[in-house]
Amino acid sequence: MFRYVSQFVTRYWPLVFIGWGAVFLILHFSAPVWDDVARDGDFAYLPDRAASVQGEKLRAAAFGKSESQSEVVVVLARRNGPLTAEDLAFSERIVETFQPREGEQTPIVNVVGPTAQVVGKKLKSPVTDHGQAALVILQMRGEIMAVENMKPLAEIYRKLDELAQSPDKPAGLKIGVTGSGAVGTEMLIAAEESIRNTEWATIGLIIIILLVVYRAPLLAAVPLIALAVAVFTAFDALAILAGISLKTGWFEFAVFKTTKIFVVVVLFGSGTDYCLFLIARYKEELSKGAGIIDAAARALDAVSAALLASAWTTILGLGMMIFSDFGKFRNGGPAIAVALVVALVACLSLAPAILCVLGKKVFWPFRVDLDSGEESDDIRLGRRSIVGARFQGLWNFLGERVLHRPVLILAASLLVMAPFVWNARSIDLTYDLLSELGPDRRCVQGTALLREYFPAGETGPVTILAFHPTADFLEGSDRFRLLRELTQAIYSMEYTASDGTRFKPIQSVRSLVDPLGEGTTGSTFVSGVVRARAKAMYVAQQEPYRGRVTRLDVIFPYDPFSVESIYLLDTLEKYLNEWASSHPQWNGAHFYFIGTTPGIRDLRAVTLSDQQLIQRLVPLAVLFVLILILRRPVLSVLLVLSVIWGYYVTLGITELVFSWVRGATYHGLDWKLPTFLFVILVAVGEDYNIYLVTRVLEEQAKYGFAEGLKSALRKTGGIITSCGIIMAGTFIAMISGSLRTMHQLGFALALGVLLDTFVIRTILVPCIIVLLDRYLPRWPGMKTPKASPGTREVHLAPHLQAEIPVESRR
Predict the structure, then answer these.
(1) What is the pTM of this model?
(2) What secondary structure does DSSP assign to 54-109, as a single string?
(3) What value does the mean pLDDT take over residues 640-649?
């Protein structure tokens, strides 16, 4: 089949260009704008069974859907004393600037400041040695990471800058901006910057690496042109699928802003490798005297099986993420896999067509000499040989050493890497959105300013929904007594922190009996307006939950995103359940928790569960492909274990590097890193093992075990090394973005690929092959055939390639 496809692509290359042009234009004009279908946020993709999701459903059913989905908080601080009357007057001006007119539909629902009745008191901090602060809260319609918040936030920043420069601003008054809406929107802005920077950095690094390694401009143009078309075609195809999913709901398929980053680096990294293997075989066929069209056809026929097998491991590995519970994993992996299919088709059709057009000029300013008699997958141009030929002595040396001392070399290599694997067993993960943003971001600076004057938990209170099927918190005669008991119980709870300190951690509880959370449970409010507002806020008004659900807002002493807050929430939940069971009037009550910390707790539980599932499914999928290709089960298992070992080494080194670089500001690796790192390293990393092992089997069929192994190392060394450097270059381009997550992931992926290129493929895999032949020679499929002159050899494996007479290749 490959032969017929190869002949069609190369003989009718004008039709290939026309076909790709037609597909590109149709998709481009049919696809919706990416930002119109891209979705973001983390909590929105938790499974329905998550406790916080169930709590949100109860809140919506009992209290109605809130118009406000996020907040932008303006912090006003005076460091040298209490806020002055001029400061409070300036806060009123901010409120007036952003308060929507009655009946007007704006992105801002409502604005509350420190001079407001009742709640205004809680928006001012106590006076301390370093002054006092007040808050102005802008309640936004858009969700925490909604794209529709981006323009309103830019307008808010613009107006605040104008107010800060106006003569009415009191001297010495500090202004900061924070809040869930500001943090989420700045995350989206940083994601856009990361996409833009990563695209240019990836292309630039590939051009530089190709020119430095191969020194042929047109050769570098082949993968760049083919993959640029593939990337934009993939973007449009993904946008169309996401748009159909949004409009019809026939199937689940979502894309995110950060999906573009992964598509760019994976497609350019893997696709460039595919193109280089094609070009290497193309040059080999030209050097044998074949014509341009015939050389392109033979090259495509020769590498198609290997490229399909290599790509299939990555596609299948990414596709395994569809079984995740977390929606971002479940959609992100398959989206990248779909894009990789597009890139593979481009490499097997558009790239050969470009070679047919350029002919031998692709190697300019060098010429293609006739075959010297030595086969190699390397692309050697000019007298000054490149990576492969330059290190022929190294590959020979490694082959000799591995054959003579495989146990010693394998044991020494594993021992050197073992400490990093051990370190990877207990790494810390962070779920803090702010940790992804740099210190120069306004919301990061605003949050730091807020935390100087308010408890860390004020930025994300934990809301408790107490559902009591027999109570009446709205009109019942004992409602205040029941709520005082519950509030006092929460204040009385003791907690042992991670450092061993035992204390009562709850800072404040706001409820129907104490709306301001001042620690007094007496009914201090008398005004009918105040009473009505408190009831509407803290007691369910809608059937069938009217009067049966009450709300309490609890302030923790810790950052809402911290693991310590999660531990405290677990303790509080267990405590309340035990307390209710021991108090007859609260028997049958159920407690639901919503807010930032409950969402983070569920996110942590779901993603850790998904990580364990993915770490089982992906290796099994890759193993299936390897056994299908190599038909050597034991070797296939060990190859999978080798890349898993490389993953843990990479994870351990990455944790050490970033903990050292970030110092006191380091709170852990981003929670998404282990999952994406594992999938990409195990799937993509197996590519180079496939290239090496299939060439080893081919060479051993001709020259015997020892000489075949050395020959394979020598002939594949240069091209695999070049591909590894290029792949690492595309991944390291991710650090050019603004998101710290991408810095960590880009570094880890680049490190992992280099480790796979220079250690696992070069040292571990050859040692494994030698030891298997030495100690398991009779294992099914492991017996190496003896070489004999004139026998018929195969490329890759016997079932993947048509037989070719050895004599015809010499």
Answers:
(1) 0.83
(2) HHHHHHHHHH---S--EEEEEEEEETTSSPPHHHHHHHHHHHHHHPPPTT---SEE
(3) 94
